[in-house]
Amino acid sequence: MDKLRDYIYQGVTYHATISFKRIRNLILKLGKKPYEIKVSAPYLTSLRSIDDFVIKHLPKLLSRVKPVAEPFGQGYIYLFGVRDEFEGGEKEAHALWKQKGLPYLEERVRHYESMMGIKEPYKVRMRKMTSRWGVNSKRTHSVTFSTFLMCFPKEVIDTVVVHELCHHFRFDHSPKFYALVYTYCPEYKSLHRYLTKRIYEGPNHL
Asked: Which residues are CB-contacts of 172 (< 8 A; sequence separation ≥ 6)?
């Protein structure tokens, strides 16, 4: 069974998934999500040995990665794919993303619900999430979106709206699910790359 573990380097927390496999050596690589790393370890490797390995090799791994922009910083914030002036900290940034983003998300959810023939409207929510962009809850009939999503261009945000609403019909990530996603968002693959690469500005920047 995989193990989850966090490592802090230069003040940043990296979330690690440790998988035990029939291999000889430890392997460290970046995950697809921001601040995510993957560790493959031989069976019976101790966590202490894995910790030592990650601490030793993480700086070298990160040095080969092209730096990405932060969603907000001193004097600026990204909102709907545009870098705007901003004075405030993390709390204020998430409050602004929620204030501006919730009305947009509600409108887009209703738009795609109409296209897809979803008769019972979903509750639309937002909260700070660092491991996913959106969540569809069958239990509460709600879709929840990460406040960080509001950094990206609107057409990129729409890919997540479509993705989560398609779970209304298929609660998996099978080929049939993605066929449905591409029905309503033909540019899904190219637009979704903005999320995986954390590129906040418009199409000319990809």
From this structure: none
